[in-house]
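PROTOCOL LOG
Step 1. Enter all chains and additional molecules of the complex.
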Amino acid sequence: MNLTNGITIAALLVLIVAVCLLSRRKEEEQFDERQLRVRADAFRIGFFSMLGSVFAMMILFSWKFWVNNVETMFTLIAAVMIAFLIFAVYCITHDAFFRRKENPKSYLGICLAVVFCNVAAVLRYIGKGSLLVDGKVTLTPCGNILFACTFAIVAVVLLVKILTSRSEEEED
Amino acid sequence: MKNLRLKSARAAKDLSQEQLADLCKVSRQTISAIEKGDYNPTINLCIAICKVLGKTLDELFWIEEEA
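Step 2. Run joint prediction.
Step 3. Record the structure below.
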């Protein structure tokens, strides 16, 4: 087992423990009825966006240039990330991403940490030489760019939402 | 359509949106959306709001048809 695999497994274990701890929530920390309705809409939009992305990617796979230069897994993960991004942005803009009493600033911190880690990984790969593996766009180095971009967009939307909701509260 | 009756009943009780939301166990944004007319609450939430503000459903949520 090399160092990267060890770090990945450790990160996954930490994530599983964190999810288990966070899933035990009190009644007052649940989503309310409006938020549940918005999230249902967001899931629907995200799901159909993913289907649309997969369909678009099937068309791309019929293009020889794409098959020769882009790894299949990268394309599929890109479809999932597009769906997640649409879901997250829809929920954040409709005030349904966070449960009641949940602090959006902590999530903003997590997003920025994910962006930082992925940018660091990209810079490390650039330092080593190229982002392409055997001339192909693959998940390992280029996936970091994908994750960094996705979470950077989520972080920006979150930041805008935090600032605008603060001014809304002042108006009230 | 804006629910000004809800807003004025809340103001009469000297409650902020955040305080009313806490008492009704919903988010502040949900109360804000109801006041702005962007969200139609379920009957359960309407009752919860009425109980907190000491009003009837008619007083807060009934819409009179214009002749």
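Step 4. Note key features.
Chain A has one domain: 29-171.
Chain A touches chain B through twelve residues (CB under 8 Å).
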